[in-house]
Batch of 2 targets.
Target 1
Amino acid sequence: MNMLMAALPLSYFSEFPQKFYDSFIEKSRYKNIVIGLGNTLLITFFAVLIGIVLGTLIALIKVSHQNNPKKLRILNAIASVYLAVIRGTPVVVQLLIMWFVVLQSANVDKVVAAILAFGINSGAYVAEVIRSGIQSVDKGQIEAGRSLGLNQRATMVKIVFPQALKNVLPAIGNEFIALLKETSVAGYIAIQDLTKGGDIIRSITYDPYTSLLTVAAIYLLIVLGLTTLLGKLERRLHQSDNR
Amino acid sequence: MKKGSKLAAIVLAVAMAVSMGACSSAGTTAASSGASSAAASTTIDKIKADGYITMSTNAEFEPFEYKDGDKVTGIDVEIAQKVADKLGVQLKVNDIAFDTLITELNSGKSNFVAAGMSVTEDRQKNVDFSDTYFDASQAIIVTKDSPIKLPSDLNGKKVGVQQGTTGDTYCTNEDGKNDIKVSSVERYNKGVDAVADLMNGKIDAVVIDSFPATKFVEKNSDKLVKLNDALTVEKYAIAVKKGDKEMLDTINNVLSDMKSSGELDKIIEKYKAALGA
């Protein structure tokens, strides 16, 4: 019981209007949250794009190599190393390495460094998801495509890929939701993302409740929105299943 | 219109989270508030009963507090040890992020904060400060070839700070009252990251407390210089929870004893000498 009280002291509720004012209205402090939210969405959006492109490429390399071990030996080896390294190290460390080591003397914006770091990170997970999607399509589908006179590339693009995408959509959606939340470590390289925006307010007001709960609520709203959108897309794609 | 409804949704979500908390804890109000007010009047008794006193600090601030092996040591820790000795209890040191120090103090997780903390008006609204024990300044570090020679040269420049420090507050310039207006403030979790970005040419200057500034420059004396003129001058004090008079009096007693006996100066000189400052 005491722990509950310590978690949210009762006095907080009566002071809430004042705390809310201090945290967001006073000296336009809400701008910290707005700027932060903008950066979080910006980083997430472009990291998702990089993730999709990179992930698809890696998945195609791995699948082609698996189907015909003589092909793409070097590219496959690079892809394997990439997957092992990226999935084997924490994203915060990758971000710090990207900023303080890789881009040490490059004249780029921090946000660009974050987009690269998170995009490259996401690519590894997307690659594995897409690979599993491609492999989930029955071999008979490829054989059918080839016997209809389509070449290997057309079979992949027109027959296998659309079915694979439908199968992996929930998993891809999860990956992007995870990515959105992972961007909250961008503050490590002094980027003002949503979490950092809340932290800045907290470091001025010393009031942990208002800014942290608000930041949490905003993340939650975005994720709920994304989940709803993905659900709609999934249903749309599954319309052809009902016959 | 749309923006307005989004904001309303956020406000509602927060309000809901808050009111849900209220429901679950309402039943215990009477009992707990009684208990907590009783506890507040006997902080010292509780410390003596527990056998230890807890100080919070951010051990990345040599020579005031820093890690020596696995132990936190420094000027603040020595002062805190005297407070513990006076009460005849053990000293426990909590090492946390600087910008959460006051939050943690007010949530009752520690008895006082000794972290080279400058007395500021904003902080005084949230905690009570002891007598000051050190005059410090916010120094400016730049690269050797930098055109920045005076604090006023910071106008329109990109400045790195440690988040939540007085250097951050000054450069952020929330109410626009400060003379120097920087173009952007980069807020780092650690001073060392700010210095790394300075050396890589990503920011124009770093504003940080004078002591760590001296240390950073010393370690990179071929690349960095510390400006002679400080950005601001301020005083360090120990913070206690607002209204915790007993704790405050104890600390002030220890501080005045240490000042009059010359012990405080000795400790500061000892650490200064170790730094070569």
Note: The longest helix of chain A spans residues 30-67.
Target 2
Amino acid sequence: MLRRYVKPVVVAALLLPWFWLSYLVYLETLQTGSGLGADPVEELIHYLGEWSMIVLLCAFSVTPLSRQLKWPALIRSRRLIGLFAFFFVLVHSAVFAVFYAELQWQILLREVFERPYITLGMASLMILSLLSITSTRGWQRRLGKSWKRLHQWVYLALPLALLHLLWLRKDGYDDVAIYTLWAGLMAAERLYAWRQRQGQKAVL
Amino acid sequence: MLIRKPPTIVGSEITPESVYHSRRQFMTAGAVGLAALGLPLGATAGWQADDEITPENIVTQYNNFYEFGTGKEDPAAYAHEMTTDPWSVEVSGAANKTGTFAFEDIIKGLDVEERIYRFRCVEAWSMVVPWMGIPLKDILAQFEPTGNAKFVEFKTLYRPDEMRGQQGFFSSIDWPYLEGLRMDEATHPLTLMVTGLYGKDLPNQNGAPWRLMVPWKYGFKSIKSIVSIRFTEREPINTWKQLQASEYGFYANVNPAVSHPRWSQASERRLPSSLFNVNRRPTLPFNGYADEVAHLYAGMDLRKYY
């Protein structure tokens, strides 16, 4: 019964930050500085970056949660959440390239190579792009066993994203601490489940 | 022995706001008009034609004042919790007149001037602000610093129950905030102790009741809500250098040629920027005040002393 509502609820929830953003941008177009502050491009990039992180962590939490809650139906929204996360990351990067660097290649290259945290962000973006492209059934079939191994690269993309956030800060790490704890808990659950599986194999 | 000639201030850097606003008439009026206004000739030299005063609401609502939180809008939201009256200032170190003074007594009898300065943050954004203030040299002179006063150290208020950022668990800053200047920087005519903005009293979020303004240095040098002035013989530590010496130095002169290790300082975003125009412009050496201050650093390797 409940199962039918999982996806619609997930989609609705993931659209909320976009609705809020549309409202802020609308205010901004009415009067400069009213929706996104004195430095709207920077604010927009940060807003999208924070949500990229949160939604990515949500996607990373689906498997452990469905396992712990014994609610396999949850797994079916995993790809959806992952793609939403990627979409945030993509728009976050696009805003940086289009509005911040104004598509000037010198600025873009200089930023990507001179600012190590942007280099890390780029690396994370590339991994997530690859995972998103290969998230379809077709690719799953084509890649067979290596599909799973490929998608384990999220274990690299997530720490890179965390480091990207940590490194751009001058001070004030409250949110970074929360995200790291969150990621750590989900990773710990995976490790625990993996060890249990190993144990069962040994018994058999 | 090094004898420096006193620098001459270019009037452009200290144009009163009223004059700035009427600069078009003023330019057409020419020298006669200038004389009538009682300004020195050459008052417009050095102004960059596209310097526009940043709107007041941005200067008072987009602040870095980590004592109230790391968000740009945190100071405007929480700085009202800080009590600024009464305000006392402790003066210590190499000076004849030391002790604790009431803020009003220190500034009593000193003329407050209006000066429009470019303000460049180390984070690569900038503003143009009409400050009200007193040249720091006039303030320091009252305390009669001795020959041993080679540097001056400033300290911000430490009051965690009124400054919520100082309670932060995930902050690595060792409060109170400290800053310092070499004595010749402190007594340079451009260096201002600010007590107001836009012809009004200084809002709490901008560092009430008084804050420093050193226009050729990155914003973090311009320490806010000062409660202590100490004259020292040795270079004092400043908070950002203490936190990360490889990224922030004692001098912190605006310098497009020396990048912050994590980002370039070659250009800046002049606020307010808009969604479709980040308003990027090249950053100038010494924030455009090189003619007035570059001689202070003659012979110094600015890559080393960043």
Note: The CA atoms of residues 255 and 285 of chain B lie 5 Å apart.
